[in-house]
Amino acid sequence: xxxxxxxxxxxxxxxxxxxxxxxxxxxxxxxxxxxxxxxxxxxxxxxxxxxxxxxxxxxxxxxxxxxxxxxxxxxxxxxxxxxxxxxxxxxxxxxxxxxxxxxxxxxxxxxxxxxxxxxxxxxxxxxxxxxxxxxxxxxxxxxxxxxxxxxxxxxxxxxxxxxxxxxxxx
Length: 170
Known about the structure:
By secondary structure, this protein is an alpha/beta fold.
């Protein structure tokens, strides 16, 4: 991993229990093209907001917390910085932690738009659970686990890639 590689972030939250299973560090990336009405994190939309952090700085914070079960990439839109997050995600997986990634895109969209430069395939490859789909305010449901609206899915990415079809995480 290139420890000096830059990621544009809105912030980090340590010890989250709402952004995926177990105790997590959540990386909120800066920049989102979706602008979903009623978004929980509208401050993350501007691509020129937030601050730069190196992957090394983020990894050090992850390593410093022995209680973590995993790391969540949220936003903003993580797939706007997919290559850097994939690099960080590989290091997270090497440390025995799981990765959850939120996206406003659908799994099918990401698969159909993978190319050698955007890093979509690489980020999917290190993601255990993908929570996909734009937030739709009219479909808001506070009873859903780790999601805001009924159209969003919890996808078991490794199984989905292996089987060639969307497999919902249990």
